[in-house]
Amino acid sequence: MDSAHLAHDHLLKPSKRLNLRPSQWNKSQVTPEEHLTRLDASFVAGQVTGLGVQISHSGSHGSWTIQIMATTTLAASPIHAEAHSLLLGTDIINLLKLQDCDSISDNLALISVMKSSQDQYPH
């Protein structure tokens, strides 16, 4: 099964949106838990597209990082490739049951669309 296809099973739902704004945690917490997701894709027309997801966690019980590299043949453009990367990252975040996960991407258009969607349908 195509790795990006797996992510389509978990499209962004109102209760499982990525938090693309800076984390807002209770200032009284001594050691807040933070999650950060970095997303990227490598697109060259006519070739297999590379997808990258890195999820980092830091909290009172230590820190960890997961890096996933996958490929897809479904991307038709650079923005489409970045969207596949976002969907893969979202799928992983959902499987890990992470909440308030900030995301970083080098694709301003994709982040702008996600922020706009989040502003229209806040969780």
Give the key terms.
disordered N terminus; 123 residues; Nucleotidyltransferase, domain 5; 3 helices; alpha+beta; single chain
Q: Give me the CATH fold name of the domain at 33-111.
A: Nucleotidyltransferase, domain 5
The CATH architecture of the domain at 33-111 is 2-Layer Sandwich
Please provide the count of β strands: 4
**Given the C-alpha coordinates, what overall shape results?**
globular
Question: Termini, distance in Å?
Answer: 31 Å
Order of helices and strands: HEEEHEH
Low-confidence stretches: 1-31
Give the rounded overall mean pLDDT: 74
Largest sheet, in brief, is: 4 strands, mixed
Number of helices: 3
Beta-strand level of the residues, as a percent range? 25-35%
- Adjacency order of strands in the biggest sheet: 3-2-1-4
Radius of gyration based on Cα positions = 15 Å
Q: What is the top-level CATH class of the domain at 33-111?
A: Alpha Beta
CATH homology group of the domain at 33-111: Ribonuclease H-like superfamily/Ribonuclease H
* Class inferred from helices and paired strands: alpha+beta
Binned, the helix content reads: 25-40%
Describe the protein's architecture and organization.
The radius of gyration is 15 Å and the shape is globular. Helix content is 30%, strand content 29%. The chain has a domain at 33-111: Nucleotidyltransferase, domain 5, CATH 3.30.420. The relative contact order is 0.27. Strands 3-2-1-4 form a 4-stranded mixed sheet. The chain has 123 residues and is of the alpha+beta class. The chain has helices spanning 3-7, 78-96, 108-120, and strands at 34-42, 49-59, 62-72, 101-105. It contains 3 helices and 4 strands. This is RNase H type-1 domain-containing protein.
